[in-house]
Amino acid sequence: MKLFEELKRINIFAGDFGSGKTEIALNCAAKINETGKKVALVDLDLINPYFRTRLVKKNFEDKGIKVISPQGKLANADIPALSPAIYGVLEGQNYHGVFDVGGGDIGSVVLGRFTDYLPEGSFNFFLVVNTCRPFTRDAGGIIKVLREIENTCRLKFTAIVSNTNLGPATDAATVLEGYRITSQAARILNLPVAFICALEKLAGSLKDIDVPVLPLTLFMKVPWLL
Amino acid sequence: MSKILMKGNEAIGEGAVRAGCRYFFGYPITPQSELTHFLAKRLPEVGGLYMQAESEVASINMVYGASCAGARVMTSSSGPGISLMQEGLSYLAGAELPSVVVNLMRGGPGLGNIAPSQADYFQATKGGGHGDYHLIVLAPNSVQELLDMTQTAFDLADKYRNPVMIMADGVMGQMMEPVELADQLEIKQVAKPWATTGTDYHEGRNLINSCYVIPEQMEDLNNRLEKKYADITRNEQQCEGYLLEDAEIVLVAFGMASRICRAVVEKARAGGIPAGLIRPITLWPFPMEFVSKVADKAKIFLAVELNMGQMMEDVKLAASGRAPVYHYGRLGGMIPDVREVLREVEKLYRGGVGQ
């Protein structure tokens, strides 16, 4: 996709709890990797003990993607342990960095410590939005969440990602209605909607949309579907 | 009806708000912290109070206080926090105070870990605190049920003036599923003439206490509780059966394990093994009658739990020796996968029933 050839070197995904940051970060890392660039996937989620990037470490390392997450037994803990390798991604020029941040303002606290390494204009900072989630059902809610995260991590979002879904109950109408609400918020905020996400099987049926659609492959699965 | 995507933890919080609960006292612990985060945001929206207590001992006693005053009130925790609450739970049962307590089980014993578990079954259903008492224990297995059963929990608590526990595990709390939210709320709050709301609101003096220094009076309370527990046992057993009609090997599982076992039963049947599933929804009262009826026909039971074999003992009591009861479990926060449970089903069936 053209989108992934033109991305800035550092791409950070934040948003409210359960907005889909991890799946999108994984998909983006895989897509950038396909363009032939070197990719580092950074797990900054210190608050969610389940369904986080580190669970797919092996799978992604096999693709040649560098996965930076707490090492050894720290991987199973819920303590604020950050790898020094994160600075390598930010300061060096070798890797395209994809950052998966924890949910909400609480989850984005961790990002604040890296602001000195993120000069304005050098990165994409995406707000991931699912309008089927409890606190981001309308433009007002989306803007409130955006402000809470920005105030906590001291970085300004550069774009919004429309990721509206109802899990397995998602249809094209769900995705389009989510994009409509997200666009409203984006207009008020004067931010672009960078892209829309939809499961691979739905992505093809989304027509006449003025932004790119990222077809998603899901990596996190519940135990009874393994 | 509107449909939204919720985490299990959030669904419990929303269920409480929709049941008219306006007070939550708790202390964050993984894997239920999102429930406290959610209610910290949600309760002020409806004029409620969220308070982070200094410990779980404090939160359960704050629940005691709010319940005395007639409020619908909830707390939640996991593993070590629930253990700290046991004294308070016994007091709530003794003083007959309606309240809802959520346990999102994690790996133990001790500090254990933050991975999912079902090892608090004994603690929840057989006491845990001191004295002769029972909690009503509900075991939802989907995000929708977490929402709906939290509402049910408040109704049961008020109906029987008894603490109710919602038991789930870390995965249930963390996973996301679509849920239907009713547009119209119908909150069935019952009158609480016993509550200590002040003499402007009730005749004479209301006293709430669990201290009976005279043994005859203590026994009167015990007898009353015993009768209440018998009523609950008679009226409130809930259970779900799946493909039991011709089942020879019957899996018994609650919560997350029942989701895994449903997939196992389907795979077993595809492979020619007549398997079925019993899914207890109330863990106390355990659905003795349902399991007992199935034991008339079934040839073998397999209890599948994320523990060493706790609910299995109740399955044995219900089967009363009419069919052997086996157990398969993973421990320490590990989750059994469909393939390994299926292998166990095949082994038991070929080794016993299927010959």
Automatic annotation (TrEMBL), chain A:
<dbReference type="InterPro" id="IPR002586">
    <property type="entry name" value="CobQ/CobB/MinD/ParA_Nub-bd_dom"/>
</dbReference>
<dbReference type="Pfam" id="PF01656">
    <property type="entry name" value="CbiA"/>
</dbReference>
<feature type="domain" description="CobQ/CobB/MinD/ParA nucleotide binding">
    <location>
        <begin position="14"/>
        <end position="161"/>
    </location>
</feature>
<dbReference type="InterPro" id="IPR027417">
    <property type="entry name" value="P-loop_NTPase"/>
</dbReference>
<protein>
    <recommendedName>
        <fullName>CobQ/CobB/MinD/ParA nucleotide binding domain-containing protein</fullName>
    </recommendedName>
</protein>
TrEMBL record, chain B:
<feature type="domain" description="Pyruvate:ferredoxin oxidoreductase core">
    <location>
        <begin position="247"/>
        <end position="341"/>
    </location>
</feature>
<dbReference type="InterPro" id="IPR033412">
    <property type="entry name" value="PFOR_II"/>
</dbReference>
<dbReference type="Pfam" id="PF01855">
    <property type="entry name" value="POR_N"/>
</dbReference>
<feature type="domain" description="Pyruvate flavodoxin/ferredoxin oxidoreductase pyrimidine binding">
    <location>
        <begin position="14"/>
        <end position="203"/>
    </location>
</feature>
<keyword id="KW-0560">Oxidoreductase</keyword>
<dbReference type="InterPro" id="IPR009014">
    <property type="entry name" value="Transketo_C/PFOR_II"/>
</dbReference>
<protein>
    <submittedName>
        <fullName>NADH-dependent phenylglyoxylate dehydrogenase subunit alpha</fullName>
        <ecNumber>1.2.1.58</ecNumber>
    </submittedName>
</protein>
<dbReference type="GO" id="GO:0047110">
    <property type="term" value="F:phenylglyoxylate dehydrogenase (acylating) activity"/>
</dbReference>
<dbReference type="Pfam" id="PF17147">
    <property type="entry name" value="PFOR_II"/>
</dbReference>
<dbReference type="InterPro" id="IPR029061">
    <property type="entry name" value="THDP-binding"/>
</dbReference>
<dbReference type="InterPro" id="IPR002880">
    <property type="entry name" value="Pyrv_Fd/Flavodoxin_OxRdtase_N"/>
</dbReference>
<dbReference type="InterPro" id="IPR052368">
    <property type="entry name" value="2-oxoacid_oxidoreductase"/>
</dbReference>
